[in-house]
Amino acid sequence: MIASLLAQASDFSAPTIDWHALAPEIIIVIGINLVLGIDLMIEESKKWAIATVAGFVMLAALVPVVTLAVVGDDSRSMFDGRYVVDNYALILKALFLLIAYVVILMSQTELEAAAFRALVAHLRERADVQNIDLMNLAGFCRNCLSNWYREAANAEGVDLGKEQSREIVYGMPYAEWQALNQTEASDAKKAEFEARRPKDH
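RESULT FIELD:
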């Protein structure tokens, strides 16, 4: 038996590897390890970057798929026909990579939306914190947040007015929130606010 195995080993010849045909899979494997390594090394507050890196990996893997379709042969095979790359395989690979990229983009958007909802909920809970204090200390307030929301909606073709966007942030009409929660600010706070007041306030 050993002699038979040795005889077969002596007849072994290394297969010819088409690295171009294997490039999409190689990039995916390297990319997965890169994303896992980044996930282990970076701080929790910076892990939003993982989705961006994963998206670039999907796009990078798509490049050799496109080049194979444009400049490649009609069919490539390796390992005695066990691995074949033809037009059908390239279409499936491209479809998989594009779907993966879209899913990654959607997950990133969902994370950002969740952070926005958490911020709005926190500001609603801390109604005791006045807008003027937020402006003077942080340079933004609830009204700024509602303005950014309205601008983003308008940019997407959604007709959203100023009072509507404020109600989304405040959880009630703005005038009602003012009557319930807004207190009179000191002259010093008013002067500081006027010095930093945005044009749209």
